Amino acid sequence: MNCKRGIELYEKAKRIIPGGTQLLSKRPELFLPDLWPSYYKKCSGAEVVDLDGNTFIDMSINGVGACILGYADPDVDNAVKEAITNGSMSTLNCPEEIELAELMLDIHPWADMVRYARCGGEAMTLAVRIARASSRKDLIVFCGYHGWHDWYLSANLSDDSNLDGQLLPGLNPAGVPRALAGSSIPFLYNRPETLDAIVSEHGDRIAAIVMEPVRHDEPEEGFLAHVRKTADKLGVVLIFDEVTSAWRLNTGGVHLVLGVEPDIAVFAKGISNGYPMAAVIGKRSVMEAAQETFISSTYWTERIGPVAAIATIKKMKEHNVPAHLGKIGQSVRNIWTQYAVKYGLNIKVHGIPPLSIFVFDYGEQTPLLHTIFTQEMLELGFLASKAFYATYAHREDHLAKYEAAIDTVFGMISLIIQQGRAEDSLKGPVAHSGFKRLA
Ligand SMILES: Cc1ncc(COP(=O)(O)O)c(C=O)c1O
């Protein structure tokens, strides 16, 4: 596989773009250092063409979870093209803001009001500001990953490993004012006692509890209800971050399936199939606080985001897309499990089926084996990592090709483990497993 152009371009990028990419999760070092195609020329459905003209089936994170319908979905793209033709920005506001608000409130009857942003992290920051303005308190108690902003990274000021138990380890808070130390404290998912401990020490300072309702683990019986009850007891805002979890198990926030209502829910990437859009929905009693504080941005008023979100949500509803995502995700898990058994490989599978992850279970060798997996799958024409985010564009023929490739690659990995040749099988460095400074 010749991916020379992409590899060379990334070398140039690292000299003029600090950190190489705009999103940690797109760093080639997280997949296959020095060998990853890195850039794309074209993408459509479940396929990606790189700068050297190689076509890959994307069996990895599919636009980091943003493209639930698949790349370049024709229905969403046509709606966007029409919005562009009619003008995407004006002195007046676009009426699609109201149409989208009504659609979101219809799906989530507990919510009364909506504000918009364009990215997940900024929408979470907006929600946290509203919660703090509403409660007139400062402390945020949270679990999970919520973006790059000061309110979140400040958790690592008092202990730089505070965020390691959340999604991304090693996040450095350099540049976050030290005065924010202690203003955000993490608790652990499915560990209600870690929330209770923070509440008993700092209960009167808490402004909001922030969390993803589900991610890599299903909530244990009573966990979400306990969080809801805690928020009610303290009279603080419960914010569900649905940036990644929504639209996968159902057409809406996953909290609708889990049966626990937040006071605010935040949606982003998955809502608009690759076009920037984010929505913060919430109860009137809390959302009205957005009038007490200054929250405002020019490009939150452009038209493409709401138009793309309306087209995406309508298509997800009409075609029952979550059912398809569940079926494809489950098939991929079955393939992993079947071939791990066939070749005697130790793997663990996590996540809800549309957001599935497998991990090799080989102690210190594990990151090396993940890298070899990505390296060998690339040779066979797949962008593949340990995570697979299902899309509406994944079909049976993709699965059949993927299954054949997994048969080959799992077989090969099993053999090199038995023969103690794992180190010799890697053509470049081992993939990074979190944030670190690039050389
Ligand atoms: C749960 C969650 N919250 C927030 C974010 C941040 O969203 P963005 O990258 O659009 O700023 C992400 C992104 O991965 C996410 O998964």
CATH architecture assignment name of the largest domain:
3-Layer(aba) Sandwich
Structural class: alpha/beta
Low-confidence stretches: none
The shape, in one word, is: globular
Strand element count: 14
How many structural units, i.e. domains?
2
The string of secondary-structure elements, in order, is: HEEEHHEHEHHEHEHEHEEHHHEEHEEHH
Average per-residue pLDDT, rounded, comes to 96
Using the coordinates above, name the CATH class of the largest domain.
Alpha Beta
Considering DSSP H and I runs of 4 or more, what fraction of the residues is helical? 25-40%
Q: List ligands, each type once.
A: pyridoxal-5'-phosphate
Task: Please work out how many helical segments DSSP would assign.
Answer: 15
Assembly status: single chain
The largest pleated sheet is described as: 7 strands, mixed
Radius of gyration using CA atoms only: 22 Å
Describe the structure concisely for a colleague.
The protein is of the alpha/beta class and 439 residues long.
Describe the structure.
This protein has 439 residues and is of the alpha/beta class. It has 2 domains: 4-72 and 320-425, Aspartate Aminotransferase, domain 1; 89-302, Type I PLP-dependent aspartate aminotransferase-like (Major domain) (Aspartate Aminotransferase, domain 2, 3-Layer(aba) Sandwich), CATH 3.40.640. The chain has 15 helices and 14 strands. The chain has helices spanning 4-16, 74-85, 96-107, 120-135, 150-153, 155-158, 192-202, 223-234, 255-258, 284-287, 304-318, 321-342, 366-379, 396-418, 422-425, and strands at residues 40-44, 47-50, 55-59, 113-117, 139-142, 184-186, 206-211, 237-241, 264-267, 278-282, 347-350, 355-360, 382-384, 387-389. The strands form 3 sheets. The chain has a 7-stranded mixed beta sheet, sandwiched between helices. The protein has a 4-stranded mixed beta sheet with strand order 1-2-3-13. Strand 1 (40-44) and strand 2 form a beta hairpin. Helix 13 (366-379) packs across helix 14 (396-418). It starts with a helix and ends in a 14-residue tail after the last helix. The mean pLDDT is 96. The site of pyridoxal-5'-phosphate has 14 residues, from helix 4.
